[in-house]
Amino acid sequence: MLKEILLYQQKDAALVKINKELQNSKEKNEVNKLVEQVKQAQNKLVSLENQASQLIAEFERLKVSFQQKSNLINNLKKADINTKSSTQLREDETEIKKEISGLLTLSKEIKNLSNKINQTVTAFDKTKTYGVESKTKYKASLNKFNELEQKENSERQKILLEMEELKKTINPSIMKKYLELRDDHKFPILVPLTNNCCAICSTPLANARLDLLNKDGIVECENCHRIIYQKK
Ligand SMILES: [Zn+2]
After folding, report:
1. pLDDT interval class at 83 (50, 70, 90)
2. b/e for 186-223, b at 16 or more Cβ within 10 A?
3. Are 199 and 192 in contact (CB under 8 A)?
4. Do 134 and 37 meet the contact criterion of CB atoms below 8 Å apart?
């Protein structure tokens, strides 16, 4: 009985190894790297889009200001000078000078802003191209990984079938315990008694448990709950 469950674990270990190799393969690394690249490009696009809408809103605001100042100047210029006193005319002149200087500042700001908008649009286009390229590369790398996985699948299927056969010869309560620990991602599950201790967590076995081990051939580790067996 012990022989069968140990053999079962051996085959299980082969499965674990195949899965680990797949997860650590350069193909899988490439997939992970490209997933990250695509994500980064998407985040950058979102932030550039926000930046662009803020800049455009600012641009619209400046345009309105510019228009208001221009209208003000035109109105002052259009006014009939014959109806105005010389004091009023001087005031108008000062006002026009002030508004013109404001317009010059505004037009500089608008020019700067429009440069910034152009830069943002260029960065957006560049990032978009990079994102599309990354996505294409990601798809290719995923295909490569799937191919590799497919290759390993036939080997995995073979091992799984052998394990199913072995299962029939194993005590169901031990099998149940084994599968529970397996679901807990504990591996290996059956460990040899080593210097009267659990080989994995090094917890010593009390005499009573050693007796139980001698009697049943296996005993549960009180600490990590793995199945301890006596090496023949
Ligand atoms: Zn243990």
Report:
1. confident
2. eebbbbebeeebbbbeeeebeeebbebbeeeebbbbee
3. yes
4. yes
Triad 197, 202, 206: Cα angle to 5°: 40
Residue 164 alpha carbon to ligand 1 centre in Å: 27
Query: Cα Rg for the chain, rounded, in angstroms?
Result: 39
Give the Å distance between the CA of 5 and the centre of ligand 1. Answer: 18
Rounded Cα distance, 226 and 213, in Å? 13
Distance from residue 189's CA to the centre of ligand 1 (Å): 9
Structure tokens at 217: 């051939």
- Please count the other Cβ atoms lying within 10 Å of the Cβ belonging to residue 74: 11
CA-closest candidate to residue 5, choices 197, 192, 199: 192
Which overall architecture, per CATH, does domain 18-170 show?
Orthogonal Bundle (1.10)
For residues 164 and 206, what is the distance between their CA atoms, to the nearest angstrom?
35
pTM over 0.90: no
Check residue 78 and give its pLDDT: 86
CB count, 10 Å around CB of 228? 26
What's the gap in Å between 29 CA and the centre of ligand 1? 33
Q: Per residue in 15-47, pLDDT tens?
A: 999 999 999 999 999 999 999 999 999 999 999
Q: How far is the CA of 194 from the centre of ligand 1 (A)?
A: 11
User: What's the chain's length in residues?
Assistant: 232
Domain boundaries, the chain: 18-170, 176-229
